[in-house]
C-alpha cells in the first residue's frame, strides 16, 4: 500500500487507512441514473465496504499508508453489495495485501415461509425482508450484517443460516480460484 495521499493529518500512526468508493454506472439499471456516485445509497454502500474491509485487512502492518478499494457496478441484477465484497476480496488478495481471512458475502431473504440465499433483482424488489451478510468463513466471524426491513425474530436464524451457507459456498469457489491462480503464476515463474 502506498503512503497516505492528501493531507498528512488523516494518516493513522498505527495502521493503514482503508479508503473505499462505491458507484453504479449510469446504464447499470433499467432507468438511467443521474449521479453514479455521491447519492445517499452510494454513500451508505461505501461506508459498509469500508467497515467490512477494515475488519478483514491486517491494517496494523502498514502504518501511515492508504489502501484504496474502488468498485463500480456495471449491471445491477441484485446483490450489489455482495458482488462488490466478493470482487474486492479477490482484488485485495491479488494485490498481496494480507487479510485475516477471505471476506465472502451473500444476500438472503424470506419469501413465502422460505429462506432464500443470493437474491436476484426480482426477489429483492418483491419487498420481503432481506439481509446482506459479510462473513469471515474460516473463523465464522460476521464482518457486516445489514437488514433492509423488519423481520420476525423466529425467521432471523433461518435467514442468517441461508446467507452463511451461501458465503461458505462462495468461499470454496474463491479459494479454489486463488489456489489455481497461484499455481499458474508459480509455474510461469519456474519456481
UniProtKB/TrEMBL annotation:
One of its GO terms (cellular component) is cytoplasmic exosome (RNase complex). It is found in: Cytoplasm; Nucleus, Nucleolus. GO terms for molecular function: RNA binding. Residues 14-98, 101-164 form the Exoribonuclease phosphorolytic domain. It comes from Chauna torquata. Keywords: Cytoplasm, Exosome. Pfam families: RNase_PH (PF01138), RNase_PH_C (PF03725). Non-catalytic component of the RNA exosome complex which has 3'->5' exoribonuclease activity and participates in a multitude of cellular RNA processing and degradation events. This is Putative exosome complex component RRP41. GO terms for biological process: nuclear mRNA surveillance; poly(A)-dependent snoRNA 3'-end processing; rRNA catabolic process; U4 snRNA 3'-end processing. Component of the RNA exosome complex. Belongs to the RNase PH family. Gene3D superfamilies: GHMP Kinase, N-terminal domain.
Amino acid at each position: 500500500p502506498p503512503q497516505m495521499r492528501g493531507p498528512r493529518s488523516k494518516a493513522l500512526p498505527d495502521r493503514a487507512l482503508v479508503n473505499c468508493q462505491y458507484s453504479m454506472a449510469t446504464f447499470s439499471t433499467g432507468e438511467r441514473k443521474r449521479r453514479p456516485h455521491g447519492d445517499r445509497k452510494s454513500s451508505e454502500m461505501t461506508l459498509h465496504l469500508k467497515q467490512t474491509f477494515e475488519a478483514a485487512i491486517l491494517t496494523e502492518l502498514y502504518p501511515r499508508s492508504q489502501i484504496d478499494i474502488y468498485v463500480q457496478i456495471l449491471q445491477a441484477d441484485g446483490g450489489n453489495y455482495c458482488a462488490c465484497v466478493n470482487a474486492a476480496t479477490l482484488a485485495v488478495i491479488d494485490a498481496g495485501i494480507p487479510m485475516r481471512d477471505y471476506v465472502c458475502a451473500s444476500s438472503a431473504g424470506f419469501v413465502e415461509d422460505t429462506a432464500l440465499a443470493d437474491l436476484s433483482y426480482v426477489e429483492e424488489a418483491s419487498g420481503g425482508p432481506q439481509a446482506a451478510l459479510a462473513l469471515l468463513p474460516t473463523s465464522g466471524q460476521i464482518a457486516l450484517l445489514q437488514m433492509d426491513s423488519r423481520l420476525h425474530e423466529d425467521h432471523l436464524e433461518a435467514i442468517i443460516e441461508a446467507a452463511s451457507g451461501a458465503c461458505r459456498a462462495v468461499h470454496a469457489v474463491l479459494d479454489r480460484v486463488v489456489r489455481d491462480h497461484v499455481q499458474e503464476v508459480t509455474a510461469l515463474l519456474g519456481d
